[in-house]
TrEMBL record, chains A, B:
Its cofactor is thiamine diphosphate. Belongs to the XFP family. This is Probable phosphoketolase. It comes from Nostoc cf. edaphicum LEGE 07299. Its EC number is 4.1.2.-. It comes from the Bacteria.
Amino acid sequence: MTLASPLQTKPLTDEELRKINAYWRAANYLSVGQIYLLDNPLLREPLKLEHVKPRLLGHWGTTPGLNFIYAHLNRVIKKYDLNTIYIAGPGHGGPGLVANTYLEGTYTKYYHNISQDAEGIQKLFKQFSFPGGIPSHVAPETPGSIHEGGELGYALVHAFGAAFDNPDLIVAAVVGDGEAETGALATSWHSNKFLNPVHDGAVLPILHLNGYKIANPTVLARISHEELESLFVGYGYKPYFVEGDDPADVHQQMAATLDIAIAQIQSIQREARVHGFTERPQWPMIVLRTPKGWTGPKEVDGKKTEGFWRSHQVPFGNISKQPEHLKLLEDWMKSYKPEELFDANGTLIPELAELAPKGHRRMGDNPHANGGLLLCDLKMPDFQKYAVDVLKPGQAIAEATQVAGKFLRDIMQLNQESRNFRILGPDETVSNRLGAVLEVTNRDWAAQILPEDDHLSPDGRVMEILSETNCQGWLEGYLLTGRHGFFSCYEAFIHIIDSMFNQHAKWLKTTRDIPWRKPIASLNYLLTSHVWRQDHNGFSHQDPGFIDHVVNKKAEIVRVYLPPDANTLLSVTDHCLRSRNYVNVIVAGKQPALQYLNMDAAIKHCTKGIGIWEWASNDQDGEPDVVMACAGDIPTLETLAAVDILRQHFPELKVRVVNVVDLMTLQPKSEHPHGLSEKDFDTIFTTDKHIIFAFHGYPWLIHRLTYRHTNHNQLHVRGYKEEGTTTTPFDMVVLNELDRFHLVMDVIDRVPKLGYRAAYVKQQLQDKLIEHKHYIERYGDDMPEIRDWKWPY
Amino acid sequence: MTLASPLQTKPLTDEELRKINAYWRAANYLSVGQIYLLDNPLLREPLKLEHVKPRLLGHWGTTPGLNFIYAHLNRVIKKYDLNTIYIAGPGHGGPGLVANTYLEGTYTKYYHNISQDAEGIQKLFKQFSFPGGIPSHVAPETPGSIHEGGELGYALVHAFGAAFDNPDLIVAAVVGDGEAETGALATSWHSNKFLNPVHDGAVLPILHLNGYKIANPTVLARISHEELESLFVGYGYKPYFVEGDDPADVHQQMAATLDIAIAQIQSIQREARVHGFTERPQWPMIVLRTPKGWTGPKEVDGKKTEGFWRSHQVPFGNISKQPEHLKLLEDWMKSYKPEELFDANGTLIPELAELAPKGHRRMGDNPHANGGLLLCDLKMPDFQKYAVDVLKPGQAIAEATQVAGKFLRDIMQLNQESRNFRILGPDETVSNRLGAVLEVTNRDWAAQILPEDDHLSPDGRVMEILSETNCQGWLEGYLLTGRHGFFSCYEAFIHIIDSMFNQHAKWLKTTRDIPWRKPIASLNYLLTSHVWRQDHNGFSHQDPGFIDHVVNKKAEIVRVYLPPDANTLLSVTDHCLRSRNYVNVIVAGKQPALQYLNMDAAIKHCTKGIGIWEWASNDQDGEPDVVMACAGDIPTLETLAAVDILRQHFPELKVRVVNVVDLMTLQPKSEHPHGLSEKDFDTIFTTDKHIIFAFHGYPWLIHRLTYRHTNHNQLHVRGYKEEGTTTTPFDMVVLNELDRFHLVMDVIDRVPKLGYRAAYVKQQLQDKLIEHKHYIERYGDDMPEIRDWKWPY
């Protein structure tokens, strides 16, 4: 152990050592019991086959380490009256967190049937990884958790998200050495460059170096001590090493190290809170190197197990066929001496029970880990104040996200004091035209600042790093602990966090059925710099498929909005920021674009989520001949321009224009709560007329949503079909046949009543496309008549 | 600069310095020209507005640094006769790589119209970021590139992928300090723990610390020198710092440092190749700290530009409205003194041209960067040798991936000498039951090895790290340089590389239209440990949506296979490993499961991709009453069990069983080359009978693929609908209503001819489901009659 200060190296008295070790034994006992036992929970009769679960599911390897850390955190929480939550990166070690929250009493608080006696322990054991019971990982069902830990890599970034703006909180983040190999975890160490000790809490990373993954050693366990130390110094931490396999020795080391770490954290905070932020401190972190499956069987069937990857999951099974395994299990569990830990009733004996903190200081009952308890509504200005004047549709020009930026600026301003709102983006807030927020706050930056720097401050509330995983993880941690946020991202690269979104959506879905979990603020994405306007970047930056990914998740969780202009974007943004327990995806452009709806119309349109645009339609006196539908800003523009062409050439054609803001309205009502009824869908789209649908994303998504509707067979969708490069804005839509000319040709090809002129017009349009191609290849820009088109009616 | 050896610190003579600087000036000149100019390429007449592009698109900031590195790499390639490729992490700096490959002559070799004279330069300038021209990033169109660089974070992992098994190759990997913040990049530094100097090449990372991203400083530029140095020492490198803004000084530093780095690489390799691998060496890496937009305008409109984020893209535009900007551009370009660099003809003068390497030593013409040129077929054993005996369908039990593992083992064995095949997985090769490969090779591990370690060796060809991004990136780099690979992954977590897959698929799509790019081996995924068998892990590990993501990409690139058993998996695996330029996704289970097809039948079935299983059907004498379709191993099992129930209760019902291996057969032929013709689809699925489709993934994917087919309205799909937890295998299908009982009820609800017994049978099935629920909650395992069901006919 590297000791930085002259604190005592054996801070525990013999009595304290004996007790903390006994507490740890109790947690280990309960962990093994969960994995293995159906009955005979306290081994008060000889262990028989029928006491053992028929299917053994769970992960032992990481669990004793998680239990060890929990016991020691309990000690310092009591000693220093700390406000602490525990993030279990190796969340597979579910039995450990369940055991500890049971020992401290919170499990019984939330699940009355799991009482603090032998019967409760039996139920605790049986329910684990058992049908109708609880999952094998740390999960939403586990009190004190904000982190599932099934998908590895996010422990540290969640911890920082939780610590921001929670000055009194210390987040203990246990990082597994397996997950430390993931990309997300590797970059999340740099989160310390964004943490301000004045008004943020602290994160105490504990790298649990148990050496092995499923079948391999871990990288960090097999580099030299010097490299490991350098790595964490390089990441900006002061690493302390706690290493060994003799419990008594490691207990003393861990206690001494935690005393130092807490002292350092408190000293850093005191200094910063008295004198203000001066420079980024070197925060402590702990490397805990102990055996995998510590205290488990040393060998199974003659093969090394403790301290090796073989103890990763269930160290041995096959109990029905190998009776010696039954004996091994009994001996193992009895090695914890349960008779010394639990009284006749099966209740943890008082001298151990009192080692746990009380009330909300218990890590399982800390309200920060049930963020909905602490959630306050955002103070919101009236979004209508930011309305763009739209006297006539399709005339005025505005940049939608730039308008939304002013709204976000004032939300930021109104909630500065409550410090419960942050805006995140991978270096793109200004690029995405949300720069107005920098009028009232800065970019968060706790690393070096130079005089020429622009809006950088350790007090900033705009968080930018070129890491989508950090942005996503920080935001998740922030929301899960009861705050609000807004994440803007280039549309194509949000796929980098596809898997993180999955896990958050799954968390939200599960919490809906857990009564004691209170609703949290929705996770709000603004996807901009989208597929149709990647002028600088081209093909690699073109992918509108995140919404396809999102709609695979439970309908009750996901919402997708495609506001066509600034006022609709304002209305949608307001709605999303007020919502709870959803993932809201908003897709909107940042470039100067035509505006269609004044604020009243925008609110009405967004409230319905879909509607006929009467002002653009000419079917007022009956059924239309064709429905021109659109979703997304550029498809809306091209649809209206197509309608203009249709009107010029076929004035007698009755065209209905339908715009979709809320994509989920297209699904049947049975599939999504926002879905239109069959009748409403038929009223809007007719039951038998052709529908030409211009869509922002991949066209088949619209088919997928609508295939059950009556008129689906007449639906023809244009969208992005993976054609693109660095070219002009209009050429992008032409390459994907989403442009006005193709849309008109789609009508011509389908609607029979257009008569003899149809072929002639089609030829004209094809000529126009050739003219366009020649023009851009000569001049490098779109033809003015296309670029400057406005709605002429 | 930290110098490790007494090499001279000013290795360049004045003459050499003058020349290398002139070469750099030429590259910078050509880079600026590409961004700005339409005409007047050598500024031989005064610059006028009409010479400037109307739309200015591109990224200047990183470009001078990329050019600087290129010039210095040219020098050491010539000096030491190196075999080197260049990976431009900041691939936005496309103009730099285009300029350099033009200067060295490779650009003209591949694009004859871009000649080495003034006319060629004019075309070079015009085509950049121009409609009908080339993209703004380093792209497949750029000679010498294997790396698009539009999506940041993969430079280093691609470099290592390229270096594995290429002992003579030095991969210079320029890492941008922006991309260094991404998760993928942050963990890819650890790739050095997998590189063996005996038989792998070297990677020389060059961190280009130009300090800024789009609008922010970079994290690594704003930590102390000590932390930065510690970080790279911690990652296992020996960092050298080259820092400054005075070109003459930085040229000398860079030359000296490259001399040292090359000497160290060669010394490490010599030592290892003579004495064998003993311990992981400390490879050199370079930190190059130079101004962003170096040599560009110092200020624009009074605002700091050189050495600041304002030079990230186009440092100034608006040339038509601000005439002083035209002057600024002319002065800037003339500062490079083009008249000294290009002769009257517009050709680079000989004394500079000779600084570039010749032939394949040119980084733009290195065959490793056009891997198809070097690609050799894998030696493949006859996959039929590994066949599982299937005397009767649905009787034998086998673990499909375990069988495939033996096939992979022998492929590995046959190609050991050619060293052109690797197997990758995030710590899951054995867990995914491919462990047989370890009979002939080991896991690659160049970090510390302990005596108890299991199949770890620096010579291993199985690559495991708990980082899907590293696995994906290594494999991409390996394939792009002309080798073969196979990536097995837990199905749910392959989403972590969704975005990387996107970029690779886009690369493949683009290369199909580039005649000089030769086809490379396909990227093969085996997704196993799939949604239906997550007994240990539960909900967080359940997501079959990667195939939804994949099918959004171009049909000519993607293939998706769902082999129902071991023999079909063998046939599909054989096919995928022989294919070129695709992304193949295979989804198959690893658990013991029923086997259906003997090898002959499996080959026939896989060749067609879809087929009626006559042996399971009883409609031989005419049209069926219902079609029971299935795709995926578990859905196939449940479908057959449902058919069994149907036969017992409704022996007169004519049931057709259809199994789909190749998912793309379901699309119309117009949408995918594997798609069935409308006639064939109708023959299989009928035009009017109900189809009950049991699908492995999200059910709407089947609708999305089939919505254009005649009988789509009668199609009813069951699949995963985000219901799951840690429970029994059969309970998982019940939770998602994909089980045999629900499938039978789906038939009962739809097929009218079942008569009076239907309601009675349905009640029986509902009772069965309740009985199942009670059984598993009591015993924790599935009822034997379900667990042990076999096809009884």
